[in-house]
Amino acid sequence: MLGAIWQDSKLMSIMAGFFSAMAFALLGYAGLQWLIHRPLFELQKVELTGEVDRINLVSFRANVLPEVQGSFFSVNLSDVREQVEDQPWVRKAVIQRMWPNGLRIRIQSQKPLAYWGDNLLINTYGEVFSANPAEVGDNVLQATLNGPPGSELLVAKMYVNASKVLRKLGLQLKDVNLSDRYGWSFKTESGLNIELGREQENFTINQKLDRLVAIYPKIKEQLMQTVDSIDLRYPRGVAVKGERLAGANAKPVALKTSLN
């Protein structure tokens, strides 16, 4: 039977073509491997661009560069990106090959919005991250935010929105807290505690903030010399604690305002 195969010129031609192609493929692969491992393509340069103001270059060289392994062709860009994004103040990184022996790393840095809890920071995207607050700069982080796991973006948005509202009243937010039951409470730099409670179908958080804007000036002008706390959880009134103005009515305060 083997003899019949050797005598079959058409089959032998197909087999010869197959083995020739295999030989060329193996030679090509071997040549490619030889080429990509030449010293010319060994990584020698890493260019750092983008938002690098807060990047500690000493730490970057010590922690990132030793992990960059391979040549221009073989380096794993995903591994490099993960290593870069693990560094403080780096939010995102884009890694590109730079012919013939370099990498370009483009950095998007963290933009801190406030403190998150006791030890972390939160950025303008509502993402929590770890970094040294001393590197932020004076008067950048002015508030501390807290909330249950998964609420980071919600709390960050509330802080931004409520800060705009309270600035109309000459107040600056210091603390924003969302309880495990999703009740809101604020504290200002002046020490004023503001209770908003939970979002309600017929009495939303935005409506409560509108009520605060409407009544706070009246409270200061007509009733209270200093205001310690305002409780806005009640649909038909507010509870206020503080030092009354001389001659102000000593009866409990219940101010009603329209929600329209």
List the defining traits of the structure above.
disordered C terminus; alpha/beta; transmembrane; three-stranded mixed beta sheet; cell cycle; Ubiquitin-like (UB roll); single chain; transmembrane helix; nine-stranded mixed beta sheet; 12 strands; 33% helix; Rossmann fold; 260 residues
Structure summary:
By secondary structure, the protein is an alpha/beta fold. It is 33% helix and 27% strand.
Tell me the layout of helices and strands.
Layout (H helix, E strand, L loop, with lengths): L1 H6 L1 H28 L8 E6 L6 H7 L13 H9 L4 E9 L3 E8 L2 E5 L3 E4 L4 E2 L14 E3 L5 H16 L5 E6 L4 E6 L4 E6 L6 H19 E8 L7 E6 L16
Parallel strand pairs: 1-3, 4-7, 7-8, 10-11
Antiparallel strand pairs: 2-3, 4-5, 5-6, 8-9, 9-10, 11-12
